[in-house]
Amino acid sequence: MSDVNADDWVSSGHRPMRFPEFVIVIASIMALNPLAMDMMLPALPNIGAAFKIPVANHLQLVLSTFLIGFGAGQFVMGPLSDRFGRRPVLLGGMAVYAVASVLAVAAPSFETLLLARALQGLGTAATRVIATSIVRDCYAGRRMASVMSLAMMVFIAVPVIAPSFGQAVLLVTAWRGIFVVLMLYGLLALAWSVWRLPETLPESERRSLAPADVLAAFRQTVTNRQTIGYAIAAGSVMGALFAYVFSAQQVFTGIYHLGHYFPLAFAAVAAGVAIAGFLNSRLVGRLGMRAISHGALTLYAVIASVMLVTEILNVLPLALFMALSALMMFSFGMMVANFTALAMEPQGHIAGTASSLYGSITTLIGIVVGMAIGQSFDGTLMPFSVGFFLSTIAALAIVLVVEKGRLFKPHHRSAT
What we know:
By secondary structure, this protein is an all-alpha fold. The protein has two domains: 16-207, MFS general substrate transporter like domains (Growth Hormone, Chain: A); 210-408, Growth Hormone, Chain: A (Up-down Bundle). Helices cover 78% and strands 0% of the residues. The protein has 16 helices and no strands. It has helices at 3-8, 19-30, 32-38, 44-51, 61-84, 86-106, 110-138, 141-172, 176-196, 211-222, 225-255, 262-287, 289-312, 318-344, 351-374, 382-402. Helix 5 packs across helix 7 (110-138). The longest helix is centred in the middle third of the chain and has 32 residues, at 141-172. The model is unreliable at 1-8 and 412-416 (pLDDT under 50). Residues 22-406 form the Major facilitator superfamily (MFS) profile domain.
C-alpha cells in the first residue's frame, strides 16, 4: 500500500503519525511478546544445564510461565486503559517489561527466573491489549482487519528470526545475554512510544473503574455470541500453536536431530505466518474476514488430519513435518487477525475491556491446551498430532455454532 493510498483513509486518531509509521509502531510494541517468547527457544538446554533441571519437559515452564503472566495480565489492562487512557497503561507495561528483564539477567535460581518471566508476560499484556485497542480506536470493520494484518505481518515475522537471533546471542555470550537484548529492545520501543504515539481515547469516552461498571463491560463482552465464540475458537487453534512452540526444540533436536540447525528449521516453518499476514492484508478488503478465516480454519483441520494419519502410519519424515507445520502456520496467520477483528467488531465502545478479556480468554485457553499437549511429549509426535487434531476440530465446531452453520458468507449488517 502506497503512502498516498494509505493517507486516503488514514485515521486522524493517530496523528501526527502517518499510516506506515502507525503500523510499524503498533507492530513493534506487539513484537515485545513473541520476541521474549521465541528468542528463548535455543537457550532452553543452556538454562537447564545452568540450574540443573533434570526433566527436559520442565524447561517448557520458561515459556508457559511467561504466557501465564501474559494471559492473566490482560484481565486488568483493558479496564485500566478504558479508564486512564491508552498511553499511561502502555508505557507502564513496557517499563515493567524492562525491569523484569533486569531481574532475569540477575536471577540466582530457576524459580526467580520463572518469576521474572511471569513479570515479562505481565508487561507484554499491556502492549498486546493496548495495541489492539488503539487500532480499534482508530479503525473499524475491514479497515481494522487490514491494519491488524499489516501489523501482524511485521509482528509475526519476529518468530521467524527470533530463534536465530537468540542462537547468535548465545555464540557470543551466555543465555543471560538474551535478556539484556530483550531489555534494550523494550527500552527502544518505550522511547519511540513516548515520543510519537498519541493518546487515542478521548476523555469523553473513558469509562469508570467502579466494579459494577467493569463487571457490566465484562458481561457485555462474554454474552456477545460473536465475541465470545471467536475468542474460544481462537484459543483452541492457539493451543495447537503454543504446543508446537513449547515442544519445537525437543522435536527438532530430539526426534529429527537437527542440533544447532534448529533455529533455521523453526524460521522456515514460521515464515508461513508472515506470508499469511501479508496476503490477508491484501485480500481481506475484497473477500471479507469470514471467507478468509473460515477457509483457513478448514485448511487447519485438513492439515491436522494429515499430520495425525501420517504419524499413526509412522510416515512423517522431517520434510513432510516441516511442510505441514509451515501450512499450519500459514493457516493460523490467515485466521488470527480476522478472528480478532470479528470478535472486537461489536465492542467499539468498550474496546479496551473487550480487547483485554478477549486476549485473556484466547491466551489462557491456548496455554491450558498447549501445556497439556507439550507436557505429554514422549519422544514422538503422537501427543502433538492428537492434540492438534482435537483442538482444531473443537474450534471448527465452535465457529459453526457461532455462525449458525453458515460459513464463509459475510453478514449484511457489517462488512465482514
